[in-house]
Design brief:
This protein is mainly β. The protein has 7 helices and 40 strands. Strands 15, 16, 17, 18, 19, 22, 23, 24 and 28 form a 9-stranded antiparallel sheet that branches. The protein has a 9-stranded mixed sheet with strand order 31-30-32-33-40-39-38-35-36, sandwiched between helices. Strands 4-3-7-1-29 form a 5-stranded antiparallel sheet. About 10% of the residues lie in helices and about 35% in strands. Strand 18 and strand 19 form a beta hairpin.
Length: about 675
């Protein structure tokens, strides 16, 4: 990360202490890290669960911003309400493997544009998803009429047709004369057993079973995606009197149509089928050659005009019955070539499912592109009452041609999506901290007034109150209950005057109070093992102040996410001992390059070349964070250091709990 980008992120994260383009009334709520992992990402959909996260009411709404070197960039987003509340957005553009991107959800007016949204249009038969007036996908819930002279047994609803390419080519077909029961993209089962009856829900002419849509589908629309939820019933038409028919299998379809952000595509569609037994009886999907998630292609495609390719390199001639993670179906269109990449998910039953493909010459060599993923081609699949069975597939719809390498990348992106982590929450009621600066006999840092002023400014800009004191008489159980964290700013030597003060501090921490410790705080209470075990280590000595290299061990902690992998910084490099192995190291100094004529005495080779100098800990009910950096008073106006300090404070406050002294240890001061 170059110096310019580092400074840009510092300005972004430090808020109005330095400068900010975000209105002062707006405030940060959640900060996310999105990790690409082992795979390059290309406009990947991402989401994060908001279950249990109570977003504050905001008259101005919410906004999602990406933190970049060019500033905070507004990102279209969508919040899905309900029992599984999630935040959705698109990781736009190319994200190289092994990289991370940062996002922040804030209060404020979003720039989501309704003119660029996915919209869902409904009529009495179907729902059509559109983007900028362009048709993407049509789901028909009403029963389709049948050609004149054909049996009404072929009537059914609950299918996708048409599915359009980005340029408008229709890629699906329904009711072809050779197979009237083929319905674009659909999901019936051919060989099943229910209450000792054999049922076929695929070959409708048998009058054994059919599929009906139960009720009206529910849709959403927005700048990121359009969704559809529909209930299908697999109806047994051979049930004994008096009913003569009954639901044997319930199925819920959930479809997500993603906003690619461009009319040129490619277009992503996620398809999910969840199966439930409709009664207290078992429902068995018997082993059979074709059934499940199926696709009948446009009549333009045949042996000469289309090509099929599986993830295993199989095609139309040799792919039938083989297993595959994906299959690409591509053929002639009014725009040259158009296609669909069908992807199956690793969590599907019997993954990777076997394929049913029409081979070369099948269907008399005409209009003969058909395929389906079949999770029960070789063995029965027994569905038990009370359980849910989910199958997931993704379709990438495109014009032109895609290389096998790119097809594989798209599947990897689906099977191994980017990892989204909430790294900071700034929610709940207002927080307040106590900055404590008491020093015992010995060296007292001149930076203390500067640190107090800096923390006050950080609090004002980031929504937490700040009180300060150097009077240990205020360290009482009653007084500390009003604070979510104590900040030990450059305390040193004997920090408390009495055992009662130490007792109050210990019980505060044990009861869930947070602790932020800065620089020489590790030299406080050197005769009190509980203190330096809780802080994470004890100051031993330091070489002369100098510039040295700091390795960022955890690059996505709020106190380090603005730093380059190696941070060059001038400070006192503290050597500590009595280090707590339970701490989470964030920064480590490269002591191998430090000028120090006593290095052989300590640390020697105890830590190799890296000495921990910043860490975080979960301490029972609360959190603690320590940085050994911060010697000079000038650092408390330095944006890089301030962002480091702010991240530590916010992280501790993020984990703060209401103090509960009943949970504090009764075995108080024993050492």
């Amino acid at each position: 990360m170059n110096k310019q980008r580092t400074l840009a992120l510092i300005i972004l994260l430090c808020g109005s202490v330095i400068s900010s383009s975000v209105h002062a009334q707006d405030r940060a709520l959640l900060t996310f890290s999105v990790s690409s992992g082992d795979f390059e990402r290309n406009s990947s959909p991402v989401s994060v669960a908001l279950d249990g996260i109570a977003l504050p009411e905001s008259s101005s709404g919410y906004q999602l911003l990406e933190l970049t070197s060019k500033g905070k960039i507004s990102v279209p987003f969508q919040i899905e309400q309900g029992t599984n509340k999630r935040l959705y957005w698109i990781l736009s553009g190319i994200t190289p493997n092994g990289t991370k991107r940062l996002f922040e959800l804030r209060t404020g007016t979003a720039s989501n544009s309704s003119t660029n949204s996915i919209v869902a249009l409904r009529d009495k038969e179907a729902i059509v998803f559109q983007h900028n007036g362009r048709n993407l996908l049509r789901y028909q819930y009403a029963e389709a009429s049948v050609p004149a002279g054909k049996s009404d047994l072929f009537r059914r609803g609950g299918f996708i047709h048409p599915l359009w390419s980005p340029k408008g080519e229709v890629l699906t077909r329904i009711q072809p004369p050779d197979h009237l029961h083929h319905y674009g993209i659909w999901n019936p089962w051919t060989s099943t057993e229910f209450e000792h009856r054999k049922l076929d829900f695929w070959n409708l002419y048998k009058a054994e079973g059919t599929v009906k849509v139960n009720g009206l589908p529910v849709t959403t629309q927005g700048p990121v995606l359009g969704t559809l939820s529909a209930r299908h019933e697999h109806v047994d038409l051979t049930a004994p009197s008096p009913t003569g028919s009954k639901a044997a299998l319930e199925e819920e379809w959930n479809i997500k149509v993603w906003n690619s952000g461009t009319d040129q595509g490619p277009q992503l569609v996620d398809f999910q089928s969840t199966l439930y037994c409709a009664t207290d009886s078992l429902f068995t999907i018997k082993a059979y050659t074709y059934q499940g998630f199926g696709f009948r292609a446009t009549e333009k495609w045949d042996d000469k005009t289309a090509r099929l390719l599986t993830s295993e390199g199989k095609g139309k001639g040799d792919g039938n019955g083989t297993r595959a993670r994906w299959i690409d179906a591509r053929g002639a269109s009014n725009f040259g070539k158009s296609g669909i990449l069908f992807m199956t998910h690793p969590l599907n039953h019997n993954f990777p499912e076997q394929l049913r493909l029409w081979g070369i010459g099948q269907n008399q060599g005409k209009e003969n592109v058909f395929l389906n993923f079949n999770p029960a081609q070789e063995q029965d699949w027994v569905l038990k009452p009370g359980n849910a069975y989910t199958l997931n597939y993704r379709m990438l719809v495109y014009d032109g041609e895609l290389t096998p390498e790119l097809l594989e990348k798209y599947w990897q992106d689906y099977a191994n999506p980017p990892k989204v982590e909430v790294i900071l929450r700034q929610l709940g009621s207002p927080k307040k901290v106590l900055v404590y600066t008491k020093n015992g006999k010995g060296y007292v840092h001149e930076n203390i007034p500067s640190s107090i002023e800096a923390i006050r400014k950080l609090g004002a800009a980031n929504g937490f109150g700040v009180d300060t004191t150097s009077n240990p008489a205020l360290i009482t159980a009653e007084n500390l209950q009003q604070y979510q964290a104590i900040i030990l700013s450059n305390t040193n030597n004997e920090t408390f005057d009495t055992e009662a003060q130490k007792l109050a501090f210990q019980r505060y921490i044990q009861a869930g109070g947070g602790m932020v410790a800065i620089h020489s705080a590790s030299g406080s209470e050197r005769q009190w093992p509980w203190f330096w075990r809780t802080l994470g280590g004890k100051f031993r000595r330091h070489p002369p102040l100098q510039q040295f290299d700091i390795q960022v061990v955890d690059p996505i902690h709020p106190s380090t996410l603005h730093l380059p992998p190696t941070w060059v910084w001038e400070d006192e490099c503290y050597y500590l001992d009595q280090l707590n192995p339970g701490m989470h190291v964030l920064l480590a100094a490269n002591v191998g390059k430090i000028a120090d004529d006593k290095k052989g005495e300590y640390p020697g080779n105890t830590f190799g070349t890296l000495m921990p100098i910043c860490w975080s800990q979960e301490t029972g009910l609360g959190r603690s964070w320590y940085t050994a950096l911060g010697h000079k008073k000038e650092y408390y106006s330095d944006p890089t250091y301030l962002t480091h300090l702010l991240g530590g404070i916010l992280w501790v406050l993020d984990g703060s709990e209401k103090l509960d002294y009943s949970k504090a240890s009764k075995n108080l001061i024993t050492e």
